[in-house]
């Protein structure tokens, strides 16, 4: 029974269902971040929460929620800061269905227009999108009036600052942003609205591009630092699965449609500010190219060397052609941003939800070897065919999941999304210009290496039979430790070997063939990527694989080496993967470099980055770590309160991440 039918049948019980759902989500977050037991978490969440439930499952019902939360959420002013920013973490908007998030609104809309101009531009008819925009602007005006009243009535020693803030909020009605500071305050105001109304993983977009029309002064660098410090507030509240997983991505630089490379003084300011502040969040993604200024690459190297995990590098020379092949217009492909981690998407014109499930390459392998059909295969080709049949079943189950998704009405993203006005439809009803989904993947290296080991040991050297292989995996390598070590030490994934790359591309082609025949209910397509946050959680529930991985052990991280491969070889390997048309949902080369290499020979590190650009990777991220330091930090976290590590697509304090993630970094 869908939610509409349940509303008609159960009526008053629906708010309780929402409340329970939100309490469970909040309690799970509290347990992850504080270690509280389940019952304590539930009691604490229920005691503190002030839920705003959905009375009617419609745009009107959602606006009723917006009205209530903007009236009831507490406003808190901190006049010691350069900007005003607050989130009432206890006033929670409860939802019934899937909430749009994991993306970056295009804040240029509110920087360069007043509310009055936006009303004239975006409320031009009586269709659903215009009505939604008209209502939203009305509620935002009421909220601004409330803020201005409280500012007028507040007494503070920083009266000049109070008056400046009051002027900024008053000007939103009649005027576009006048300078850099006012523009940043508007971004913070609307960003806070997204978080307060239940959205998660909200990015910032191309900040240097957003601010390009404003003049930088001598004080602008300090202004940028203040802006970043403000965004770091509510760090735990904003975190999703682990501390630091906030989705607050700032994208910098990038190729233009005329072939030139865009960057400005703000590009440099953000890179330098993130390195100086040494905070795990917000995070930077730098769009790179062979045509980028050498000085900017040097600044990126300095930021990476600071050990804060930023920036992740996204290679426009590879990413943009992939987006064009997938079907994006030229302007949108060149103007891409990313989701909460790294997944490219069209900016400001799309219902781009890029974490809609995970392709379980590794689990398909463990399930296949447990199938009685496995031992009946007479050749390596038959084993591969059986594996591909399992992979296709996995993809079909994901399609069924996508077909059943129901999106929550979303006035904020309708307002910020190009296409909704033209179509006259809200974003949750397919109003966006693009309505594509994205899926991640995990365990590819285990699948590839398992198949290659089966080929060598069973069909070429005839050391084992398929029956023996199946029994070894079923018994989780019991009594076969030497074999397990041999398999672990002779993995091929990440090596620049033709047989490895050919098999990876065969698997990529299998997924591509399945994806290209699918459209979601809005007519959108699905792209996939070879990166995932699920390498530990998926591994914990997956059987043993024939690459030496035991049952329950983690899968490998993204595109990374398994047996001490040189970083240059891993990059060469990644450069030979065929990303095709549908394989562009984030493909991250994940490298761990020793601190001494980066800090003692910076020029060598810069030369390495230049070589990577020539090889043409898709995306790349770094951990700059010391093995001995990590060991000490695990045992004595109080000695390293500021030690930052890159986890999957975000950075976090090492002391705050779960022990299994700490161990995984140490083992790598």
Detailed description of the structure:
This protein has 668 residues and is of the alpha/beta class. It folds into three domains: 1-77 and 85-96, no CATH class; 202-347 and 591-668, no CATH class; 358-412 and 414-584, no CATH class. 50% of the residues lie in helices and 9% in strands. The protein contains 30 helices and 17 strands. Strands 3-4-7-8-15-14 form a six-stranded mixed beta sheet. It has a three-stranded parallel beta sheet with strand order 11-12-13. Helix 18 runs parallel beside helix 24 (498-515). The longest helix is centred in the N-terminal third of the chain and has 26 residues, at 128-153. The two termini are 47 Å apart. Residues 6-11 have low confidence and may be disordered.
The end-to-end span amounts to 47 Å
- Unreliable residue runs: 6-11
Sheet having the most strands: 6 strands, mixed
Mean pLDDT across residues: 92
Give the helix proportion (percent range): 40-55%
Whole-number total of structural domains = 3
């Amino acid at each position: 029974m869908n939610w509409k039918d349940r509303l008609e049948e159960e009526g008053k019980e629906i708010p309780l269902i929402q409340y329970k759902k939100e309490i469970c989500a909040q309690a799970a977050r509290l347990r992850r971040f504080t270690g509280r037991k389940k019952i304590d978490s539930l009691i604490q969440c229920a005691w503190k929460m002030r839920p705003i439930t959905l009375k009617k499952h419609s745009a009107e019902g959602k606006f009723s929620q917006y009205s209530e939360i903007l009236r009831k959420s507490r406003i808190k002013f901190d006049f010691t800061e350069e900007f005003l920013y607050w989130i009432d973490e206890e006033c929670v908007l409860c939802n019934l269905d899937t909430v749009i998030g994991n993306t970056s609104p295009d804040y240029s809309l509110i920087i360069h227009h007043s509310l009055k101009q936006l009303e004239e531009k975006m409320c031009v008819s009586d269709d659903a999108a215009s009505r939604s925009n008209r209502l939203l602007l009305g509620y935002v005006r009421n909220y601004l009036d409330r803020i201005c009243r409280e500012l007028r009535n507040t007494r503070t020693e920083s009266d000049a600052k109070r008056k400046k803030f009051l002027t900024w909020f008053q000007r939103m009605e009649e005027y576009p942003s006048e300078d850099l500071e006012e523009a940043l305050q508007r971004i913070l105001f609307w960003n806070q609205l997204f978080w307060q109304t239940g959205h998660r993983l909200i990015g910032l977009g191309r900040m240097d591009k957003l601010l390009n029309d404003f003049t930088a002064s001598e004080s602008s660098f300090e202004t940028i630092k203040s802006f970043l410090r403000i965004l770091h507030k509510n760090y735990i509240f904003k975190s999703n699965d682990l501390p630091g997983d906030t989705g607050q991505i700032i994208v910098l630089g990038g190729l233009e449609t005329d072939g030139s490379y865009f960057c400005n003084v703000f590009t440099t300011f953000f890179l330098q500010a993130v390195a100086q502040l040494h905070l795990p969040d917000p995070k930077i993604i730098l769009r790179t190219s062979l045509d980028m200024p050498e000085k900017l690459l040097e600044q990126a190297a300095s930021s990476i060397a600071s050990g804060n995990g930023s920036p992740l590098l996204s290679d426009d020379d590879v990413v943009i052609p992939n987006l064009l092949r997938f079907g994006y217009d030229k302007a949108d492909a060149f103007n891409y941003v990313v989701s909460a981690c790294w997944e490219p998407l069209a900016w400001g014109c799309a219902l781009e939800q890029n974490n809609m499930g995970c392709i379980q390459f590794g689990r398909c392998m463990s399930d296949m070897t447990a199938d009685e059909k496995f031992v009946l295969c007479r050749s390596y080709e038959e084993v591969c065919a059986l594996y591909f049949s399992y992979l296709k079943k996995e993809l079909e189950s994901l399609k069924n999941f996508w077909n059943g998704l129901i999106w929550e009405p979303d006035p904020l993203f309708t307002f910020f999304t190009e296409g909704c006005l033209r179509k006259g439809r809200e974003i949750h009803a397919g109003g966006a210009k693009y309505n594509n989904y994205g899926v991640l993947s995990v365990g590819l290296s285990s699948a590839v290496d398992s198949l290659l080991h089966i080929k060598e040991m069973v069909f070429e050297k005839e050391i084992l039979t398929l029956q023996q292989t199946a029994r070894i995996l079923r018994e989780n390598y019991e009594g076969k430790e030497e074999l397990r070590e041999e398999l672990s030490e002779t993995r091929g994934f990440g090596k620049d070997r033709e047989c490895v790359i050919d098999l990876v591309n065969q698997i990529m082609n299998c997924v591509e063939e399945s994806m290209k025949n699918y459209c979601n209910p809005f007519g959108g397509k699905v792209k996939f990527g070879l990166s995932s946050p699920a390498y530990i959680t998926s591994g914990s529930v997956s059987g043993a694989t024939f690459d030496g991985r035991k049952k329950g052990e983690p899968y490998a991280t993204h595109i990374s080496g398994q047996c001490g491969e040189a970083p240059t070889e891993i990059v060469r390997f990644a450069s030979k993967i065929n990303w095709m048309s549908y394989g562009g949902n984030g493909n991250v080369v994940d490298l761990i470099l020793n601190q001494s290499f980066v800090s003692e020979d910076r020029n060598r590190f810069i030369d390495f980055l230049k070589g990577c650009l020539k090889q043409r990777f898709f995306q790349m991220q770094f951990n700059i770590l010391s093995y001995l330091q990590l060991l000490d930090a695990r045992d004595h976290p109080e000695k390293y309160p500021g030690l930052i590590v890159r986890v999957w697509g975000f950075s976090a304090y090492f002391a705050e991440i779960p022990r299994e993630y700490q161990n995984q970094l140490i083992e790598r």
